[in-house]
Write a structure and sequence with these properties.
Helix content is about 50%, strand content about 10%. With about 325 residues, it is an alpha/beta fold. Strand 6, helix 13 and strand 7 form a beta-alpha-beta unit.
């Protein structure tokens, strides 16, 4: 859980979720003039990437069963709209549940939706969950999202659901987003629902605090906004009975110094997904070392932007290859 000019592309990428870079296991320009909303258009390759159905199979289904009726460009290339994509996802899901494509083609949209809702949690394969979540995202369907996630959490727990359902889904969405296969509103909708679920379960933790344990302060560096894995980590630490303090997004280093002055020696934890950039990480670590060299605070870091970077020669900072390694490090 990546490049008009490099600066312009960087700004675009930083507005994206980039969930594929999250370590657990990752717009438009405003104007005063009225604008015409252009419908989303997809190539057959986009549909293949989104649904997992090969382009060759999609063409056969179109010709044999008439399941989709794409428009054509002047050069006779198929172009699909949002409705086509939703229909194919629904059909693909029913097909994976054992329904024959010849029978699916005879069903109305309402009948297909009714069957899908009945199977919201009736199949425990990862492919099934991914299909259901994609459909909920495309339709802005919060109820369907909850019908998929809530039973899985009840049966397996939030951490397992996050690892085996949510993160694989987010990784796929990150790839689709980078290829412009989904729009920002759909991405924001689904990430907001996930964040909402995490916060609900965090609030429900009532584990007594362990005594004589240092506080753990969770933060994201300045300009870093990718917080879903950090929220999950916050939940796990609270379950362990640790005093986990969540500062969340885009925290300047100077603010961390003020936290330490108020709380005393703490363990700081962060995840570097897009910021600081890989080339800036060494300077950031040196800066923290200078700021905290007169304390017994310790920094525990992981994340995509730390790949290939060695832990600094200091007692204050430890870099970990993944979340599980970081959690183990906090035990010691």
């Amino acid at each position: 859980m990546k490049e008009e000019s490099q600066a312009g592309n960087k700004k675009q990428r930083e507005g994206k979720l980039l969930v594929k870079n999250e370590p657990f296991g990752k717009g438009g320009v405003s104007s005063s003039k009225p604008t015409t909303m252009r419908p989303q258009e997809f190539t057959i390759k986009d549909l293949e990437n989104f649904s997992g159905i090969k382009a060759h199979t999609i063409r056969i289904w179109e010709q044999r069963y008439g399941i989709l009726s794409p428009d054509r460009t002047d050069t006779n290339i198929r172009k699909y709209n949002d409705k086509d994509l939703k229909s194919l996802l629904n059909i693909s899901l029913l097909n994976s549940l054992g329904y024959k494509i010849s029978n699916i083609a005879k069903l109305s949209d309402d009948q297909i939706r009714e069957i899908i809702n009945k199977h919201a949690h009736g199949n425990n394969t990862e492919e099934h969950f991914l299909h259901m979540l994609k459909i909920s995202m495309l339709n802005y369907d919060e109820e369907l999202f909850s019908n998929v996630i809530d039973p899985h959490v009840a049966e397996h727990g939030l951490e397992q659901t996050f690892r085996v359902v949510i993160m694989p889904f987010l990784m796929q969405i990150g790839l689709l987003w980078q290829s412009d296969s989904i729009c920002p509103a759909q991405e924001h909708f689904i990430s907001a629902l996930i964040r909402q679920k995490l916060l609900f379960h965090i609030e429900s933790v009532k584990v007594p605090l362990e005594q004589n344990k240092r506080p753990v302060v969770l933060f994201l560096p300045d300009l870093e906004i990718h917080e879903l894995s950090l929220l999950m980590l916050h939940y796990i630490l609270k379950l362990r009975g640790l005093r986990s303090i969540l500062l969340s997004q885009s925290v300047p280093a100077e603010d961390l110094k003020q936290v330490a002055q108020r709380l005393g020696d703490v363990d700081f934890v962060s995840i570097f997904t897009t910021h600081p950039s890989t080339v800036m990480v060494p300077d950031y670590l040196k800066r923290l070392t200078r700021m905290f060299m007169d304390t017994d605070c310790h920094f525990h870091f992981t994340g995509y932007n730390l790949k290939g970077i060695k832990s600094p020669d200091t007692l204050y900072i430890t870099l970990y290859p993944g979340i599980d390694d970081l959690l183990e490090g906090l035990k010691n």
